[in-house]
Structures are given as structure tokens and as C-alpha cells.
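@channel sequence for tomorrow's demo:
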Amino acid sequence: MPDSYSGTEKNFIMNLICISTDDYPDQHAAAVRHSTLARGMVELGHNVHFLLLSPQQWKKSELNYHGVKFRTYNSHHETDKLLKVFNFYYGIHKVKKRIRELHSEIRIDAILIFAADNRIIKRILSVAEKENIAAFHERTELPYVFLKKNSINDYFRYKYYLRHLIPRFDGVFVISDKLLEFFKTYNPSLQKILTVVDTGFFRMKGEPQFPFPYIAYCGNMDMRKDGMDILIHAFARIKKDFGEMKLVLIGKDSDENRKGLLLDIIEQLDLEASVIFTGQVDREDMPGLLGNARLLAVAKPDNEQNSGNFPIKVGEYLATGVPAVLTKVGEIPDFIKDGETGFLAEPGSVESFYDKMLEALTDYERAEKIAQNGLTLAREVFDYKKQAALMLGFIENYIKRDESAY
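C-alpha cells (generated this afternoon):
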């Protein structure tokens, strides 16, 4: 397996189809990643179509976003279980039909399946194999974190995914070395694609939205994944040192029980007036909310889920040029160096996270220099066009290798 690819030839224009069930173009981290990579592919001269199998928030069935074409084939927001199942399978049928139509019209070079649903993967792979179209998959988390549940049926679905579906792909894109190690047992054709960010977008911060200094976090209000309890407890201590400082939590959490636990912690620490929940915000507002903060923070715990992924928010934090306080989990310390490109705390420790926030805020001139180094890292390593070129190069390499075999 090659370590890297230099990108695609200018005269080799590819038509790519992406299959997913997420909310596009930018409602969740995964959708942001896929949309940003696809945008990079388009800017590099290629054509990208997303065929979606879930209802979207846009009113029309089609959307053109930075040259990437999105179309949903399941626009029904049904509550009835039977109708949901019917619309799901009918959507797959329509997507299969559309793949055949596009292949006869423009010749599809590759299909990228971002969904992790066996029902989708099995059927789309069958079409790809029948039409002789290269098929690729992407994973950004260890599969047993999100696939393997408690029932015996879930266990067999998980095993079927690994043993019978993953080997059928012509290649698998992963985000970390741990995923490379995990998936090589099932498919040796692997390529690592790092987290991606458009640094230019995050430099457009505009006027401050709040009249007070604040520390910002963006994402789900999840203690297990993002250590929100650690962040809030550490902030309570920072508040004693910097009385005007507030904590702004950006993002929507549909889990009311989870948010209720955070509200209980906030109440116990007497922080009701100092912690602000913005709820879901427009993507266009993110550069301002993050870029005008004094610090950006996420206190990810050291667990299985975080050991194999690399958060897109890390790249976005660095891209703002604002000092970022993170934890030493997964591959974060492989790229971000404490005191050089960011501030790294020990995971699971309120004391350590507080110390790093205090270090950044106490000598803010130094912190800003470190943040500029982080911005340089984002531009040089996590740039979306560089990672898109890597993905395209891997696909092109396979296609040309496959064609030369005949």
C-alpha cells in the first residue's frame, strides 16, 4: 500500500458518486467532512454527485453547494414504521436506478459509500460490481463503536459488514493509524485521509457576537465523547481567576437527558449566568463564534470511540488562529504539540484541563503565537484540497491499475 499520492493528472477528469444517509451539506461533523472533501475534488476539476438516502432540511430535492450536486431520494419524514421502511428501500431502488442512468450518460468512475448500513452497502456494491464501477468506503471511527450493539442480530450484522462487505470494496479510506491497523485484516487496499478544514473560511470571523470574553466549544453536548463535564468543571475554576469570562457551548443536542445532566452540573457549580447554550447555528456563523473566542476547548476522554477518530473540530479550532486547549487522546498528540501548536491536557483530569486553560490565558501573547503555529499546521497538513487530492490520487491509481490489467 503506497503511503501517499501526489494527486491527479489535470487531463484525467473523474465522475464520482457519493452515497450517504447524513444531513448535508453541513449539519453534522461527518457531513461537513464529506462536503468539504467533495468541494476540494470539484475545485481540482472533477465532478461529484451525492445521492442521499435520508430526508434533508432543504425544501427542494436538489442542491448545488460549491459545485457539488446533492439530491435526496428519500424525502419523506414519516413517523409510521412501515412507511419509513418502505421509503427507505424505495429510496435505495431509486438510487440504484440513478446510478445506472448516470453511468450510461457520463460514465461513473467511482462510487464512494459513506453510509455504514449493510442494507445500503450490499445493494450499492452489487450495482457497482455489475456495472464494473470501482467502489470505495470511508470510516472515521472503529466500527464496533457504532455497529456492534447488544443483540445477537446486531452482532451478526457487524460480522457480516467486516467479513463479507468490507473485502468487496476496491479501497477503504480511514482517518487514523488505528483504523488502518484494524481494517487491514479485512481489506489491504487502504488510504489514510486526515481531518479536513478550509482555513480561509475560518479566518472570516467578522464582528464579535458577544460583548464579553469567552471560551468556546462546538459539537454535541456529550460527556462520553467530548468530556463536557470535565470542561464545565475546569471552567468553574477558571471563572474564579477571570471573573468576566463565560463559556459558550455551540451546537444542538437532541438528547434532553444528556443536556439535563449538564444543566444539573452547571446549577451545582452556580454557573447559570456564565454558561451560554447557542443551540444549532448556521454554518456561516461558525467563524465568528469560534474566531472571537479567547480560547477554544474540547476535553475528549481517553476511550475506544476517541482512540480511532480525529475530530474535525480540531482542524477547525486551529484554522481560527485562536489558542486551542485539547486532550492527549487518539492521534491528536501526533499532530498537535503541547506549547508549540496548541495546549494539551491529560484526558479525564479537571486539574490538568484547568491548568492548560490557565496557562494559555495567563500569558496570552505567548498563547497567540502558539495559535499562529497551529494555524500554519492546519494550512500545511489539514487543508481540504490537499486531502481531496490524496483521495483522488488513490482512486485514480486504482482505476488506471485496473484498466491496465485488461
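heads up for whoever presents: Residues 27 and 282 are 9 Å apart (CA to CA).
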